[in-house]
Small ribosomal subunit protein uS3 (Rhodanobacter glycinis), 249 residues
Amino acid sequence: MGHKVHPTGIRLGIAKDWNSKWYANKGEYAQYLAADLRVREMLRKKLAQAGISKIQIERPAKTARVTIHTARPGVVIGKKGEDIEKLRKEVSKLMGVPAHINVSEVRKPELDAQLVAESIAQQLERRIMFRRAMKRSVGNAMRLGALGIKINVSGRLNGAEIARSEWAREGRVPLHTLRADIDYGFAEAKTTYGIIGIKVWIYKGEIFDLAAASAESKDDQSPSRREGGEGRRESRREGGEGRRERTAK
């Protein structure tokens, strides 16, 4: 049977970037990795209501820079920046170096796979029907410009005796295309019947290399000139053909 590889892992270096950016020697690598995991776990626990999409960690020159991508930046920052200062101190303590925290706002949470998965999980915990939650999320994503979306829900759906999987899809989700910009998210809903897993794939278009992207942007900047030129050429050709016909007559 076929198995689905992680959509982000297979596209690293092609269409996706790493969430941790640092270099470590053999002796420090495990230390840094464990510190990153502790920081991410702590931030997701403390900012559970802030709608955290992803956390990026960089380590430039004996310091640390943590970027939190969130749908609710006000919850992260707090009144007069009090909450973010507390977080900065805790992150510095966990990482053992001075840390800086940046907050980046996710402007369209309906197009972020992780936030969509967490939203469905919260709805299932509030006993909303899973089909209604899936249909609403699919409709919102397509309305805001997604080219395709797929949602898979697995577990004891509606409290059924036997666990099963159900899915909804609209548009295209080309998992085999490496240049496809596919956002993937996973969340768990802890219901009274057990845990329900939610997976979300959102297709936003294709990512090309730098040369192709720059050429494409140049084409986008001057389409009217080209269209006008082609139109004039066609009209000239038509005029020329007409003149030839007249002379032949």
